[in-house]
Amino acid sequence: MAAVALFVLACSKDKSTTPSGDTTPPAAITDLACTDSSGDSITLRWTAPGDDGASGHAARYDLRYWRRRLTSADWDSASSVTLTLTPRPAGSIESLTLHNRTWWTTYYFALETVDSAGNWSDVSNTATATVFPDSALRFLIQTQSGVYICDPNRHVTRFADPTGEIEIIGDRLFAIGDGRKIYGLDAAGAPVDSIPTSESGDAVGFVALPNDRFALLDNMQDLAYILGRSGQILATFSLRDHASDARQNVSGVVVGNALVISENGSGGILRVDVASYAIDDLKNLNVLGTPPGDIDYDCGRYYVCTSHEVYSFTDSTDAALVGTLDQAPITAIAVAGGYSFVTVEESGMVYALNHSTRTAAVFISGLNHPRDIEILHR
């Protein structure tokens, strides 16, 4: 089974040798290769060198990646991969799977090996891998003209008629349509059933929850309603201590057993246990100076948009700027593959914001006021 690693930033290593009679470094690896770059991973393979040349048992690998062919001159500037992989005996086949890559990006990998005496090998050959989204991935975009579906090659086709917010949980699709009903959609976008929401006040936010439930978020009364499959209200709770008649953004995302809501009207991000409905303050983002809007979650991080910007934070870290768009206002965000895909309603466009370069480019244009975006894996 392949070992697994994550990308992190590089730091220079000390190549000084420890006092020892061993002065022979491991042999340089010459067969580093990418064997797979499909789905959400890159897999690398190579033959293990030894402690002394091509014999014995080396101590540690140093794997790095760069934007071009790696040489010793680039080494300290390249990004490093944190490895839990211990070198196997010389001549063994090593295999390593890397996750959290950025789509539409080419990576250049190389390895060095060190022995127990601190002798470092020369830089290996360079292996190249270009990462693309899985061909089955789809973007669902809600507009004033209906819901459209887009593949990774940016081919756009009409998917469904409802013009309200869309939600995906697992492989199930839902949308708010006429009469403020929640419609379940089949794989072709046709309604297959509906759930009434008539008793849920002025709710505008809509989140599909596990176990056939839905959260409707009321930004006028500062309330959240939990609905069952037939539309009955199972629970109601307040989004803030004191209700305010000022409208705010309300959006939610399911993370594990929690519903995370952006925001409470004061820049607060709330976390609600979807079993007990117990609520706690996850993060205060009023320091951003502008209200947080739509929210998404990917690979351990939360992403929120403001009118022009995307920020990211974790349970234990403060919000950090991911990138800024010239166009505004951002109305929705969906995160995957090292990008934030954001809708800008007035421009009719979806932008792809690259988390690594912090640059945004038009991903889809010519839409009729896009308001919401979701990512569907098939």
Structural class designation: mainly beta
Number of helices: 0
Strand line-up of the largest beta sheet: 2-3-6-1-5-4-7-8
Mean pLDDT: 88
The biggest sheet, with number of strands, parallel, antiparallel or mixed sense and barrel status, is: 8 strands, mixed
The helix content, as a percent range, equals: under 10%
| Gyration radius from CA atoms, angstroms | 25 Å
What is the first-to-last residue Cα distance?
Answer: 25 Å
Please state the overall shape, judged from the principal axes of the Cα atoms: elongated
> What portion of the residues fall into strands of 2 or more residues?
over 45%
Number of strands: 32
The parts where pLDDT drops under 50 for at least 5 residues are 6-12
